[in-house]
Amino acid sequence: MSFVTSLSGLKAAQTDLSVVSNNIANGNSIGFKKSRAAFGDLFASAPTQSTKSVAGQGVRLNGIVQQFTQGSLNSTDRTLDLAVAGDGFFVVKGQPPREAQSYTRNGSFSVNVDREVVDNTGNKVQLLPVNAAGQVTSTANADMFDFVLPQTDPNDPSAVLSNITVADDGAVTATFSNGSQTRLGAIAMASFAAVEGLRPIGDSHWQATGDSGVALLNQAGNGPLGTVRSGTLEAANIDLTEELVALIAAQRNFQANAQAIETANNMTQTIVNLQV
């Protein structure tokens, strides 16, 4: 039994090492959220058996839980570098034919050849419709649309785009060479009832699940969404010192369980030799 117990400890320590190593490896990943491995003890006994004379059977992994704490905000001076100061997520849509919707904290956006604003994986940033004052007029999923930069003023084809600004509430304003301005929309933001239930899909992107609940869409500045910071990117919420300490603890845990297996093996070998 001690072999099985220590083996479960080895597997748990190995998982812990993997989680901490992944955190450290992504220390420079924009919008990355660290994870923690949660463990629970294994215990079983018959109903008529006294639990005072039964040892535990080891440890098991309860789950790897993401920590959605705020990362530090670093200035970049690029208008389309956006960060969220709060709990919200940017909404992005994949390429046809699936056009899968996902959510990200990585606001390193750029413009493709079709003048669409996309993230670093090519997903298109989504906007919500706004009125002349920049206030969202609909938060329905069906009313979201792609963030596309206009080439010219809709009312004056001779006036070209000269500037884009993104306000703290996510409202996007285009300024043209003739001095006119047009509200393009507001950056679509999403929040979730149980954010830890989101499914990570890589590149600091997540998908909604039954555990997280459906995405609640709104404009930045409402509820827990927080505000949008233009010219800023959110760093990974990693404390390298904390992770290195956790790495040392996981390594020692692994070594201790390996030593327990070696001790059990020596005891078993001694008993075998006595029987011979």
TrEMBL record:
It comes from the Bacteria. InterPro entries: Flag_bb_rod_N, Flagellar_basal_body_rod_CS, Flagellar_FlgE/F/G, Flg_bb/hook_C_dom, FlgE/F/G-like, LlgE_F_G-like_D1. It is found in: Bacterial flagellum basal body. Residues 5-33 form the Flagellar basal body rod protein N-terminal domain. PROSITE patterns: FLAGELLA_BB_ROD (PS00588). It holds the Pfam family Flg_bb_rod. Residues 83-174 form the Flagellar hook protein FlgE/F/G-like D1 domain. Keywords: Bacterial flagellum, Cell projection, Cilium, Flagellum. Residues 230-274 form the Flagellar basal-body/hook protein C-terminal domain. Belongs to the flagella basal body rod proteins family. NCBIfam families: FlgEFG_subfam (TIGR03506). A flexible structure which links the flagellar filament to the drive apparatus in the basal body. This is Flagellar hook protein FlgE.
